[in-house]
Amino acid sequence: MRATDAPAGLHRHDYATRDQLAEALAAGVSAKLAGGIATRGHASLAVSGGSTPKRFFEVLSKAGLDWSSVMVLLVDERLVPPDHERANAGLVRRHLMQNRAAEARFVPYVVDGHTPAECARLSQAAFEQDGHRLDACILGMGTDGHTASFFPGGDRLAEALDPEGDDKVLPIFAEGAGEPRLTLTLPPILDARFVALHIEGAEKRTTLETALGGTDVDAMPVRAVLHQTATPVHVFWAP
Description:
- This protein is α/β, with parallel strands linked by helices.
- The chain has helices at 18-40, 54-60, 88-95, 116-127, 157-160, 186-190, 202-212, 223-226; strands at residues 10-14, 43-47, 70-74, 76-78, 105-106, 136-139, 169-172, 181-184, 195-200, 233-238.
- It has a single domain (11-238), classed as 3-Layer(aba) Sandwich (Rossmann fold), CATH 3.40.50.1360.
- Hydrolysis of 6-phosphogluconolactone to 6-phosphogluconate.
C-alpha cells in the first residue's frame, strides 16, 4: 500500500535500523513529555509490553528530562502476579525505569488480590489520580491485529473500543491473549497528545498493510486506531 493510500491523520516513519527507530521515537516522546512539564508542571506516558520496545525504553531512559515530574503507566497488563516473568510491569522496570528515568513515578496496574473487575476499577482510580490527558501513548501490535489488549474475540472488545465509553480501564479475556488482562480503553488512548504505533520486522509490516486494507475492526482491532480520523497516529517501523 502506498503512503498516499493511508487514512487521513496516519503518519508513517520508516527507519533503516531498529536502533535508528528507537532514537527517533525516544526523541519524539521526550519532546512531548518536556512540553507537558513546561506547560503544566507534569507529564504522563503510557507504554506497551512485549519484546519490541526494549531498545526504545533503554534510549528513552537516558533522556535529559525532569523525570521526577513524569508519571509512567502501562497501556495494558496481564492479570498475573507482579513478579511474574510475563508481567509488563517487570519489563518496564528493567528497561525503562533506570538511568535518569529511575526518578519517574511508575503506576502499575492492580493485578492481584481482587476480582478482574475490581482490579480494573482500582487501576482506573490510579490512572485518574492526576486528572489529565496522557502526553504520549505508545502502542504495539500483534500479528493477529491486536493492539493494547484489544484482541480479536475479546469478551469485552466492543466495550473497550466504544468511542463514547466512560470506562478508562477494563478487564478483557480472549483465547489469543493467553491470560486475562487489563487494558486502557480506546478513548484515553486516542485522547493522548501523541499516539505512536511501534512495530518492527517484515511480518508486522505485512500485518499493518492488511489492517490498512480493510475495515473489519472485530477481525483486526488495531483498525480502530488506524482508521479513525480524530487523532493523528504515528507509525514507527524498522526491518
